[in-house]
From TrEMBL:
HTH gntR-type domain boundaries: 1-71
SMART domains per UniProt: HTH_GNTR, UTRA
InterPro entries membership: Bact_HTH_transcr_reg, Chorismate_lyase_/UTRA_dom_sf, Tscrpt_reg_HTH_GntR, UTRA, WH-like_DNA-bd_sf, WH_DNA-bd_sf
PANTHER family assigned to the protein according to its UniProt record, in alphabetical order: GNTR-FAMILY TRANSCRIPTIONAL REGULATOR, MANNOSYL-D-GLYCERATE TRANSPORT/METABOLISM SYSTEM REPRESSOR MNGR-RELATED
Annotated SUPFAM superfamilies: Chorismate lyase-like, Winged helix' DNA-binding domain
UniProt entry tagged with the keyword Transcription regulation: yes
Species name: Frankia torreyi
Keywords: DNA-binding, Transcription, Transcription regulation
MF terms (GO), sorted A to Z: DNA binding; DNA-binding transcription factor activity
Annotated stretches, region: Disordered: 245-266
Protein name: Transcriptional regulator
PROSITE patterns: HTH_GNTR
Pfam families found in the cross-reference section: GntR (PF00392), UTRA (PF07702)
Length: 266
């Protein structure tokens, strides 16, 4: 067992003691006291805390240290099915987020398109795009970061304003700018949080993020008119899909006739 695994095991035992030395909702001692107690450097302690965070035992933040979590509490679910919903606020892509609101006023800026955004929007590299940056969550708690990128069609329109009115940018694109009905495609990936993203979400630097990339296509031209990239704390949320049966798997099934063995062609 490595030193960081030994430290993680000791801290885990303190959480599981009866009564627990570190009960659910309490904070672990800071880096200074723990490195002194265990006689290790900050790097080893960071690995130990990272292991506990991966197990869902603690949440580490740059601001308040490590908070002890309930290991029996399941992660929140991000519904990324194939259905877009709508309520009086507009389109909803995650059912759980229908009541989430911006924590702060969205920031807006024109900037040269980063290479991946230029590719997704099908515009030349370095072309001006409008970035709209928001931090969103329930009850004033930051849960996700949503960055939207729009091409030059947004220039000198309400899409540049802090508030884009009822229904947001999608209603403006569909009804005011003549791009309805919109269609969307989405990919799901993962990456490490940048220092700025970690600060906004209250997670460790380099913490895991779920990355949901959604491309909005014009109903009149078929071209991309917006790219939305949503970053979600991978330690608190999991992607959930409903798996349906294809016609080939329709019940009742017939017994399989082949066995899946190593080395056999599939």
């Amino acid at each position: 067992m490595t030193r960081y695994e030994e430290i993680a095991a000791e801290l885990r035992a303190r959480m599981d003691a009866d009564p627990p030395r570190y009960p659910i909702g309490s904070r672990l001692p800071g880096y200074g006291p723990l490195t002194d107690e265990f006689g290790v450097g900050r790097g080893v302690l960071t690995e130990a805390l990272g292991l506990l965070a991966l197990e869902g035992r603690i949440k580490v933040t740059d601001r308040s240290g490590a908070v002890v979590l309930d290991p029996a509490e399941p992660p929140g679910r991000i519904d990324v099915g194939t259905t877009v919903r709508r309520n009086d606020l507009g389109y909803i892509f995650n059912a759980a987020a229908g009541h989430w609101r911006p924590i702060t006023t969205p920031t807006r800026r024109w900037l040269p398109a980063p290479p991946h955004i230029a590719r997704l929007l099908d515009v030349p590299k370095g072309a001006d795009v409008l970035e709209r940056h928001r931090v969103i969550g329930p009850d004033g708690r930051p849960v996700l970061i949503a960055d939207s990128y729009l091409p030059d069609l947004a220039r000198d329109t309400i899409l540049e304003d802090a508030s884009t009115g009822p229904g947001g940018i999608y209603d403006r694109l569909e009804h005011d700018l003549g791009h309805g009905p919109l269609t969307w495609t989405r990919t799901t990936s993962a990456r490490s949080a940048t220092p700025e993203q970690a600060r906004e979400l209250g997670i460790p630097r380099g913490g895991a993020l779920l990355v949901l990339t959604r491309i909005t296509h014009s109903g009149t031209t078929g071209r991309p008119v917006e790219v939305n990239i949503t970053y979600v704390d991978g330690g608190r949320f999991a992607v959930e899909d409903i798996i349906s049966r294809d016609e080939t798997a329709h019940w009742p099934t017939t017994p399989a006739t082949a066995e899946n063995r190593p080395g056999q062609p599939q």
